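Incident log, support desk, overnight shift.

02:14 A customer reports that sequence design results differ from what the structure should imply. Their input is reproduced verbatim below. On-call engineer (initials T.W.) acknowledged and began investigating.
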């Protein structure tokens, strides 16, 4: 009961603070347009002139509504010697988890080297010697298991080893207004969890890079962050482009910290539907009127429970303010676990990699409710938030 009263109070506050999707919650500058780091060319362009430049970027790295940052730099005569591609590829069309191939960008003719092909943890010595400065520009969503920051940190390590400079063109974090979830137990470190941080870390890509270097989680490269303008951590920034094939709406990005946990279970979280991460269900779940049938689509060629009717829950009408107030919400997983009554067979080993600790599964199996489980990580979150303040580039 106390949790629900708390959530209602937070919802009222958040609603009052979010009158503009791209404004500041303090009411001082509600109409100011957020300007991403890529637009601040006067800061970083002089750092690129007459140098060999490599770029780690994807389809979200837009300089303007019409032009990608790579296209702009190429047009301006910057010597781009190569493009590094993260998960989903440079143009963002590759399904989650699938390998990204090397290639050539058709528009500019620049070589593309995949960092997500199952082989390349970091570029070869020859590739690292081919450039002087690395530019990083990717839209993150602020979650420990979203892989773009991991590709960035691996490249920071490589750049430190070779004395290469790193320039991050920062972008807002759409989940940057809160911190929540267990801190990763590093024995579960993986390609979907790289640092001892909560599920929702509340940092931009620039901030997480600065923190990783500062805490010794990444090697100490020469690092510059070109900051966003008119942004702080109270801003509810609406992404102009879907950051990956299955995060197709702003609402799905808000639900993602909670519904992505189903990737470590037998339950579908909507891959193969029009609403991935906004619904969940299973063919054997009972007591629900809502249903969906996963089918192959552009975001998922072989979705879980392909072609089977799944019964479950539609979260599309849950208010954004409620999602923000609840944070990482384990009610969904606990609900599905109890409904299916499968015991340990409900989970896969991916669950620990996503949630980051062993004790969440243990408490669910032991019959604990979501409130009790979430209470266990709260103190760790507060400790992390104090540490995080040392590295914030934007006002809380």
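02:41 Re-run completed on a clean worker. Output:
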């Amino acid at each position: 009961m106390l949790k629900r009263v708390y959530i209602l109070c937070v919802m009222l506050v958040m609603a009052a603070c979010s009158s503009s999707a791209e404004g500041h919650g303090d009411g001082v500058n509600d109409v100011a347009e957020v300007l991403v780091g890529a637009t601040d060319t006067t800061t970083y362009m002089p750092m690129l002139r007459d140098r060999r430049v490599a770029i780690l970027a994807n389809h979200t790295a837009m300089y303007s509504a019409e032009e990608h940052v790579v296209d702009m730099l190429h047009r301006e005569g910057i010597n781009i010697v190569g493009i590094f591609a993260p998960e989903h590829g440079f143009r963002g069309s590759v399904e989650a988890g699938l390998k990204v191939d090397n290639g050539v960008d058709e528009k500019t003719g620049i070589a593309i080297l995949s960092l997500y092909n199952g082989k390349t943890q970091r570029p070869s010595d020859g590739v690292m010697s081919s450039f002087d400065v690395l530019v990083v520009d990717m839209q993150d969503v602020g979650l420990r298991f979203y892989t773009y920051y991991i590709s960035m940190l691996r490249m920071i390590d490589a750049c430190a080893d070779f004395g290469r400079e790193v320039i991050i063109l920062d972008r807002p974090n759409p989940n940057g207004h809160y911190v929540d979830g267990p801190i990763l137990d590093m024995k579960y470190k993986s390609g979907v969890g790289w640092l001892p941080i909560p599920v929702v870390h509340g940092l931009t890509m620039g901030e997480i890079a600065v923190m990783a270097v500062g805490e010794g989680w990444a090697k100490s490269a020469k690092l510059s962050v070109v900051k966003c303008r008119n942004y702080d951590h109270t801003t509810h920034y609406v992404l102009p482009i879907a950051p990956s094939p299955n995060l197709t709406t702003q609402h799905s990005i808000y639900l993602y910290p909670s519904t992505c946990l189903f990737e470590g279970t037998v339950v579908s979280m909507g891959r193969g539907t029009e609403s991935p991460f906004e619904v969940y269900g299973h063919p054997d779940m009972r007591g629900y009127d809502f249903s969906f049938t996963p089918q192959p689509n552009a975001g998922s060629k072989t979705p879980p429970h392909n072609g089977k009717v799944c019964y479950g829950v539609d979260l599309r009408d849950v208010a954004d303010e409620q999602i923000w107030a609840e944070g990482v919400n384990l009610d969904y997983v606990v609900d599905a676990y109890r409904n299916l009554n499968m015991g340990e067979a409900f989970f896969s080993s991916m669950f620990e990699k996503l949630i980051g600790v062993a004790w969440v599964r243990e408490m669910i199996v032991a019959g604990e409710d979501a409130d009790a489980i979430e209470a266990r990580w709260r103190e760790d979150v507060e400790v992390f938030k104090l540490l995080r303040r040392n590295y914030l580039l934007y006002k809380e």
